Amino acid sequence: MNTDRRKALVLLTAVAAAAIMSGIILTAYSADNGEESGTNSAEWINERMMMPRACMGPRGWMRGRGGFGFIEVSDEFKENVINIAKSDQDVQALLTDGYNITQVRPIIKTVVEADGTVATKATSAIVMLEKDTTNRATAWVDLEEAKVTEIVILTRTVIDKS
Questions:
Q1: What is the rounded distance in angstroms from the CA atom of residue 117 to the CA atom of residue 18?
Q2: Beta sheet of 100-112, edge-to-edge order
Q3: Helical segments of 2-144, H only
Q4: Among residues 122, 123, 129, 141, which is most buried (max CB within 10 A)?
Q5: Which pLDDT tens digit goes with each residue over 104-153?
Q6: Euclidean distance between CA atoms 25 and 39, whole angstroms
Q7: What's the CA angle centered on 108, arms 103 and 114, to 5 degrees?
Q8: Is the CB of residue 137 less than 8 Å from the CB of residue 154?
Q9: Rg, Å, the chain Cα set
Q10: Which residue, 23, 52, 47, is CA-closest to 35?
């Protein structure tokens, strides 16, 4: 009897770990939708630092950078996300100030139902904005509520002493 419980617990743990890992992989996979703007490692690191929330999943576990390829995002999806972002007054102010939209990255949520059914859907997105080479911003768009939920603006100062 004790052995059966142990086997059941091990199996349940393995299934839970597989579900969590698939969510992590799909989220990391969706965050890198094939549009890298940085050409050197400093720009790549700076771009990753713009999305500190992207490192955490909805329950707090880490999401890593996946080496599993890219998710193709349709023009209609990008247009919808951009329209929602542009309807926000703060995003409008950034665009008026000279920022340009450079990327749209979907955030994909995967849910495993009680019956084992798996549903995957882009529930939010990140709009990346850039001004010159020193100013970057991210606008977090909630697709289900059709609104911007957070904007993060970073300014990079470079003092060249060579």
A1: 14
A2: 100-112, 118-131, 135-142, 147-155
A3: 2-31, 41-49, 75-86, 89-96
A4: 141
A5: 999 988 889 999 899 989 999 999 999 988 899 999 999 999 999 999 99
A6: 24
A7: 175
A8: yes
A9: 19
A10: 47
CA–CA dist 110, 24 (Å, integer): 9
- DSSP code per residue over 134-145: TEEEEEEEETTT
Name the strand (E) or helix (H) holding 130.
Answer: strand 118-131
Contact 161, 130 (CB under 8 A): no
Tracing tokens 């771009």 back to the chain, one arrives at 47
In contact, 139 and 151? CB cutoff 8 Å: yes
Ordered by where they begin, the domains of the chain are 2-155 (3.10.450.40)
Cα–Cα distance for residue pair 123/74, rounded to 1 Å? 15
The model carries a pTM of 0.56
Hey, what's the torsion of the CAs at 65, 70, 129, 55, to 10 degrees?
A: -20
Phi, psi of 66 (to 5 degrees): -90, 150
